[in-house]
Write a structure and sequence with these properties.
Helices cover 21% and strands 35% of the residues. The protein is an alpha+beta fold. The strands form 9 sheets. Strands 6-5-16-19-20-3-21 form a 7-stranded mixed beta sheet. A 6-stranded antiparallel beta sheet has the order 15-14-7-4-17-18, with no helix packed on it. Strands 9-12-8-13 form a 4-stranded antiparallel beta sheet. It is globular and about 75 Å long.
Length: 545
């Protein structure tokens, strides 16, 4: 394994970049457009609006300049309000291979990486490591989202890699993801047509459209909700510039290159109730800004953009999704993010409802403890004790806990406390791929400070196995609301096993900021900086531009 770059310390931080340069992610060919551009101080982020299209129609909101690129660098100028379309022809898909990603580790968790390497090698599997993400300095602060990936050594076709994933799940009850690599970029000819349908220009692989006054564009029939029940289309308006590029299938993708603050204005309303208390909205704006910076360069590695506009990254609807209240919160916290005492960007994660107690990061995702992500009671008054394995049932059944996410005016009782039943047949279907046969017993164990479990033991007619990891447990059970739960069997009149009952609290992983709790704290008089200090264990808000 190659020795990684030295991890920066408070005394050896990388210098802040000089004004003007791009922070390139070093991707070859057409993927070079995947960069975070810091010219002007505020980063501009390439966000996918849609892909897999043959043709897209759009209109500039003010005077537009469309660049065709190539050796002649043809330029088309047009007035605002005109309608144009771009069509992809002669498309050729990219050549993409994949390795199975067996694990992901914080950059400081070299011991965890080495242990998993040894475990898989002992099973006879050839593995390799890969460093994902980057480290750079802005205004004396360190932005570092590097992490280690443990990958299978063999590069496979996507189909063969999916088969290898299924095999690893059957043999070792290990859920994996794919790490994709582009060997030959996709290509297509892009036609630009005017309102009458006349082709006025051609470009190879990429077109750039911008309005000099940054008024942006209206884009027709933006596809959203792909893979979800609410899959639909909507006309939307976006600030910033547009790039028309070729996706991995050789079809048309539309990318919004948008300043980070404008991105947040179209993103924050989708993350929290826009009618919430202004101090809670400010707290959400700060955490969302940090989350965007933390995701740059670690997602969509084989795609011609850094982030998507779906739940996979963050729901973003552009100007169409903006609300006056959240826009005010973004503007009031411009350029602010959370940093630890060592000056490092905090992984400012959040979930909808913590259920009255947040959780340690290592319980949910493994790896070393993060001092900024320690679980703590989310209470607004005195309270004795905290949930323990022995007292979790009583904690979940208590009706008068002074917790912020229960007392918030936006509290949702069905997310704060809940029950979920599975019939025996449903549970057998969910666990079928574990290979243990019909389920006879279930157990949740290795609980964290909030009572969330990190291990699910499944005993079946043909054997017993364990599913480790809070997210893996929730995924196995069809995205169980939370693992802050108890489980008990249900039996019929004749004693036969009929199903399983989960009684739980909270909605989501519970690490970092509780969004509903943040609203409760704001309503109780706390300012956004104090709210963030509580949830992120003393981390401080600081400007990065």
């Amino acid at each position: 394994m190659a020795e990684p770059a030295p991890e920066p310390t408070p005394d050896t931080r990388p210098p802040a970049p000089e004004p003007g340069p791009d922070l390139s992610l070093g991707l070859p060919g057409p993927l070079e457009l995947k960069r975070l551009d810091f010219r002007g101080g505020e980063p501009r982020v390439p966000v996918k609006l849609m892909e897999g299209r043959t043709e897209v129609t759009f209109s500039p909101r003010s005077r537009m300049r469309l660049r065709f690129g190539g050796p002649e660098d043809k330029v088309l100028d047009a007035p605002g309000g005109t309608r144009w379309s771009v069509r992809a022809t002669q498309g050729e898909p990219a050549k993409v291979t994949a390795r199975v990603q067996l694990g992901e580790f914080r950059f400081s968790d070299k011991e965890g990486l080495a242990a998993m390497q040894a475990e898989w090698r002992a099973r006879g599997l050839a593995v390799r490591t890969h460093v994902l993400g980057s480290v750079y300095g802005i205004a004396g602060k360190v932005i570092d989202n590097r992490r280690y990936l443990l990958l299978t050594d063999e590069a496979l076709t996507l189909e063969a890699a999916a088969e290898r994933q299924a095999e690893l799940l059957r043999r070792y009850a290990t859920r994996t993801v794919l790490f994709e690599e582009v060997h030959r970029p996709a290509r297509a000819i892009l036609e630009v047509k005017d309102e009458q349908g006349n082709v006025v220009g051609l470009a190879q692989d990429r077109l750039d459209a911008e309005t000099p006054d940054a008024e942006g564009f209206d884009v027709r029939q933006v596809e959203y909700g792909v893979g979800y029940d609410f899959h639909a289309f909507e006309d939307r308006s976006f600030r910033g510039a547009l790039q028309f590029v070729v996706d991995r299938e050789g079809k048309l993708a539309v990318v919004n290159v948008v300043p980070l603050e404008a991105l947040l204005k179209g993103l924050v309303p989708s993350e929290i109730f826009a009618r919430a208390h202004p101090e809670a909205l400010k707290a959400q704006a700060v955490t969302a800004r940090g989350e965007v910076l933390a995701k740059v360069g670690i997602k969509h590695l084989a795609d011609p953009y850094l982030l998507c506009s779906e739940q996979h990254c963050a729901v973003y609807r552009g100007r169409t999704g903006e609300a006056a209240s959240t826009t005010a919160a973004v503007e009031a916290t411009r350029g602010e993010a959370l940093f630890s005492a060592e000056g490092r960007l905090v992984d400012s994660v959040y979930s909808a409802v913590c259920g009255g107690h947040t959780e340690d990061n290592d319980v949910v995702w493994g790896g070393p403890p993060d001092p900024s992500l320690r679980g703590r009671p989310d209470v607004l008054g005195p309270m004795d004790g905290r949930p323990t394995p022995a007292s979790l049932g009583a904690w979940l059944s208590a009706s008068d806990l002074p917790t912020a996410c229960r007392l918030s005016s936006f509290a949702q009782p069905s997310k704060y406390r809940w029950e979920k039943r599975f019939t025996a047949a449903q549970m057998d279907a969910l666990t079928e791929r574990l290979g243990v046969g019909p389920v006879r017993a279930l157990g949740l164990s290795e609980r964290g400070v909030s009572g969330r479990a990190r291990v699910l033991t499944v005993a079946g007619a043909r054997g017993t196995t364990q599913v480790r990891g809070e997210l893996n447990i929730r995924r196995l059970l069809g995205m169980l609301n939370s693992t802050m739960a108890t489980v008990e069997e249900e039996r019929g009149a004749e004693g036969q096993l009929t199903g399983w009952l989960f009684r739980g609290g909270g909605w989501g992983h519970g690490v970092g900021m509780c969004q509903t709790g943040a609203i409760g704290r704001a309503e109780a008089g706390q300012r956004y900086r104090d709210i963030l200090r509580h949830y992120f264990n003393g981390a401080e808000v600081a400007p990065i531009y």
